TrEMBL record:
Its EC number is 2.1.1.72. One of its GO terms (molecular function) is N-methyltransferase activity. Keywords: Methyltransferase, Restriction system, S-adenosyl-L-methionine, Transferase. One of its GO terms (biological process) is methylation. This is site-specific DNA-methyltransferase (adenine-specific). PROSITE patterns: N6_MTASE.
Length: 542
């Protein structure tokens, strides 16, 4: 039985949860509360878990022989004990802060004992020996990915495609002994991929001495996550991958745009996909007083945190939407500051449809703190920006056309082996038939294509000097030179629902930017009124 088969089997248990009135968004949380107890049991049986063992009375063997109300009551008691560290009589049964964090405020919404019994029996019937070979952590991540791909669950908002994560990690090449950070950790996909990359290059850490191994397990990685339920998933994910972190775990609960972020230790490597949208107050508000450029645009605030939080010579890869590349005012100032303080050496324009929201156009920015020759330099650090266009004339990705590592291989090849973007590079890369695109005269006449020979105009890989960006783009990084083919084959058009989703995605993004602009102009009341109107028009999501 493969991990994919097991993931499908686990996902099928969600039908049991639905019968108990539990909705899509709570499926995975409900499932993993029970699944984690089972996985700790399997890891303990295999003697691969030395720390963070569950206390007596709260283990899988305390559940799997019971039935009826006794079973449901015992399960509720176990969740409460794991969360509080105390049993029903108030006696201390564990003082493990990580277990307490994983089960913080954990409650089951199951009402029918037979449904819980059904789930326990199903988990007991899985071939865990086969699952162990591929790693329980990979199995767990497969479940998270499945959840993210189910649009009804709404979980895709914090899930970056695995292929993109792996490419970003391979480009930055994290090393043992480096501090690696994700200020918007989600379910910890970037941190786990970076850990796996290091393990793959150190014989699963056996090439390191005991002190170095301890650093990798407990101090190398740190993430911040705002949402407690998502952080729970992240902590479980890290533990199942052998990443323990400090007393709070690898992923800390907090707001990277608040004081939690301000107190973070500087990092050698930062990998991130910050949440889209604008700050609207509450727990997610931007309260940092150490960010130079005040803004309600969360991505611009995250970008400032990232390049400020890198050590000299530190490197970053960050997923950002198009508006960060072209937004005027504060956006221009942030980009200018980034290119002053860092060597922004590479920009990857991503295709649409690879994230949960159709129509959201995104990019990956790769940069190193300091210049190519002096890591302590703080001005004029960017000399050239290399841009790879993986968006123009690419398929509309989605369930019918999945986005995979094969689509990113040409980019990795031209990026080169140097993690700071200093490999020898040459313009001219024509993957995915870019040389066959019939470009209209208007496209050939754009600034990007002036003085460029006909063949190079078709290349997906081009270089633009810092001076050119300042002079021709006014420090906008919205650089494009190719154009989608005008000859659209109707048979290859996306489903109408996808086209409608893309249109709605662009409208939502535009509305978010208008909301941000009104608030920056001091028109908060009018903006709030429009939001109420919109809410009445569309209604709440059920």
């Amino acid at each position: 039985m493969t991990n994919n088969d097991i993931v499908q089997k686990l996902w099928n248990l969600c039908d049991v949860l639905r019968d108990d009135g539990i909705n899509y968004s709570d499926y995975v949380t409900e499932l993993v509360l029970l699944l984690f107890i089972k996985m700790v049991h399997e890891n303990t049986q295999a003697e691969s878990l030395k720390r963070h063992v569950l206390p007596e009375g709260c283990r899988w063997t305390d559940l799997n022989g019971k039935s009826g109300l006794n079973l449901l009551d015992d399960y509720k008691r176990i969740l409460l004990s794991l969360s509080s560290g105390r049993d029903g009589a108030g006696r201390l049964i564990h003082d493990d802060p990580l277990i307490s964090a994983v089960y913080a405020d954990a409650q089951t919404r199951l009402r029918e004992p037979r449904h819980l019994e059904q789930m326990i029996k199903a988990l007991d019937q899985i071939d865990w020996f086969s699952a162990q070979k591929d790693g329980l952590g990979d199995l767990y991540e497969g479940l998270l990915e499945k959840n993210a791909n189910e649009t009804k669950s709404g979980a895709g908002q914090y899930f970056t495609p695995r292929a993109l994560i792996n490419t970003m990690v391979r480009c930055l090449k994290p090393q043992p002994g480096e501090k690696i950070q994700d200020p918007a950790a989600g379910t910890a996909g970037f941190l786990i991929a970076a850990d796996q990359y290091i393990k793959d290059h150190t014989d699963d850490l056996f090439d390191l001495n005991a002190q170095q191994q301890a650093f990798q397990k407990n101090r190398a990685f740190v993430g911040i996550e705002l949402v407690p339920g998502t952080r729970r998933l992240a902590l479980m994910n890290c533990l199942l991958h052998g990443m323990e972190g400090d007393d709070e775990g690898v992923v800390h609960l907090g707001n990277a745009l608040g004081q939690t972020g301000a107190g973070l230790e500087k990092a050698d490597v930062i990998l991130a996909n910050p949440p889209f949208g604008t700050s609207k107050g509450g727990d997610a508000s931007i309260t940092r007083d150490d960010l130079t450029y005040k803004t309600s645009n969360k991505q611009l605030a995250f970008l400032q945190h990232i390049y400020r939080n890198l050590k000299p010579g530190g490197r970053a890869a960050v997923v950002l939407p198009d508006n960060v590349l072209f937004e005027a005012g504060v956006g221009t100032e942030v980009r200018r500051d980034l290119m002053h303080k860092c060597n922004l050496h590479t920009l990857l324009r991503l295709p649409t449809g690879i994230f949960y929201a159709q129509g959201v156009k995104t990019n990956v920015l790769f940069f190193t703190k300091g210049s190519a020759t002096d890591k302590h330099q703080e001005e004029n650090c960017t000399e050239n920006v290399w841009v790879y266009d993986l968006r123009t004339n690419m398929p509309s990705f989605g369930k019918r056309t999945p986005f995979g590592e094969q689509h990113l291989k040409p980019f990795e090849a031209v990026f080169g082996d140097n993690p700071n973007g200093q490999s020898e590079r040459k313009e001219g890369e024509y993957s995915f038939h870019s040389d066959k695109i019939d470009l209209p005269e208007a496209t050939k006449a754009t600034d990007e294509n002036q003085g460029v020979d006909e063949r190079m105009i078709h290349s997906r890989w081009r270089c633009f000097s810092r001076e050119w960006i300042a002079e021709h783009k006014g420090d906008s990084l919205d650089i494009s030179w190719l154009k989608d083919s005008d000859s659209v084959d109707a048979a290859n058009l996306p489903e109408p629902s996808v086209l409608a989703g893309e249109a709605m995605g662009e409208l939502v993004q535009a509305l978010g930017e208008m909301d941000s602009l009104m608030r920056e102009l001091g028109a908060e009341e009018e903006a709030d009124g429009q939001r109420v109107l919109l809410n009445e028009l569309l209604g709440e999501v059920q």
